[in-house]
Amino acid sequence: MCATKTWDVEATVRQVVDLERAGADIVRIAVDSARDVAALPAIRARTAASLSVDLQENYRLAAQVAPFVDKIRYNPGHLYHHEKEKPVRDKVAFLAELATRHDCAIRVGVNCGSIDPEVAGRFAGDSVAGMVASAEEHCALLDDLGFQRYCVSLKDSDPVKVIDANRRFAADRPDVPLHLGVTEAGLPPDGVIKTRIAFEQLISRGIGDTIRVSLTLPNDRKGEEIAAGRLILDDIAHRRYRSVPENLGRRLNIISCPSCSRVENEAFVDLAEKVREVTAYAREHAVTIAVMGCRVNGPGETDDADLGLWCAPTHVNLKRKSETIGTFAYDEVLSRLRIELDRLIAARQSE
Ligand code: SF4
Question: Within this chain, do residues 185 and 281 fall inside the same structural domain, yes or no?
């Protein structure tokens, strides 16, 4: 996925080419603003790559976007929130009609941190069931509309949940292609290991049709995501599996988003690396820390972490579960994070 500002045509085309050279078959770009939309014809004119576009907030942008891309990805949770008064079926019909007219595929991309709240409410306490139900609901809508060129993704930052969600979905809808990924897997090598675990468990059972490896990397190293994905596929094809340690998930777990054009401050990748360094002393404690690059997904996707950081242009928001502790300058937040981490460990030890 391109992490450049999409409106920056030069930088985006350069990254599309770099990712293709690294072995990507499909390249995803994000479109959030009129400026991003205006850049699409120029990007399309300069690359023949299969382009998938991520419609995060505003599904109606699809009307301007579809003529220039090959695939549209929408998130059922975000679709629910935009134009709430309108039935979801009408919004899906709008996307399906555009996709048909412009010969695009659709990906229904369900994410753990942004499940449609009506569906999530029905499955309180079982986020995996909520993800699967949301995906199946949208498959039924697309089926009903006669739209067939779609695939589904069910992503979480926890590989165990990714395995569970994709297995449950594949059992119910073996006919629907699945795009696999562990979202916000974090920095390499940990992020590669989490992804490998999920892919080994799913692909070895015949589940999965396309993959994405999401790693927190600077822009000029994004090709490493593709290399990691290709290596995992090659290992699975040759039955070179890695064992899964029993205590996986019972130690310090740092999740961080792979970054994209929405990153609010270039300091994000550096911040994620420093979070890993300053918290290394707590590696034996089962604490999850989430580091997210922007306000689009940051607030929601840090809710489940014990401690969360999400980046704004000039400061970092620090959270304890869904509660905001405060906002801190980039050079102040790490010392406060350590204080909160020590408090959390001490509280658990006194329980
Ligand atoms: S959290 Fe924000 S910056 Fe990070 S990948 Fe998601 S949308 Fe992009």
Answer: no
> Is residue 214 domain-shared with residue 280, that is, in the same domain?
no
Contact 192, 216 (CB under 8 A): no
Mean pLDDT of the residues in the chain: 93
Instruction: Indicate whether 115 belongs to any domain.
Output: yes
Measured from the CA of 1, which atom of ligand 1 is nearest?
A: 5
pTM of the full predicted structure? Answer: 0.82
- For the Cβ of 262 lying below 6 angstroms from any atom of ligand 1, the answer is yes
Let me know if residue 244 belongs to a domain.
no
Closest approach atom of ligand 1 to CA 260? 8
Q: Given the DSSP bridges, would you call strands 253-256 and 288-292 parallel, antiparallel or unpaired?
A: parallel
Tokens of residue 275, six digits:
């979070």
Contacts of 331 (CB under 8 A, 6+ apart): none
Q: In total, how many domains does the chain have?
A: 2
pLDDT above 60: residue 155: yes
Residue nearest to atom 5 of ligand 1 (CA): 259
Look up the CATH number of the domain holding residue 70.
3.20.20.20
Ligand 1, atom 8: nearest CA belongs to which residue?
Answer: 260
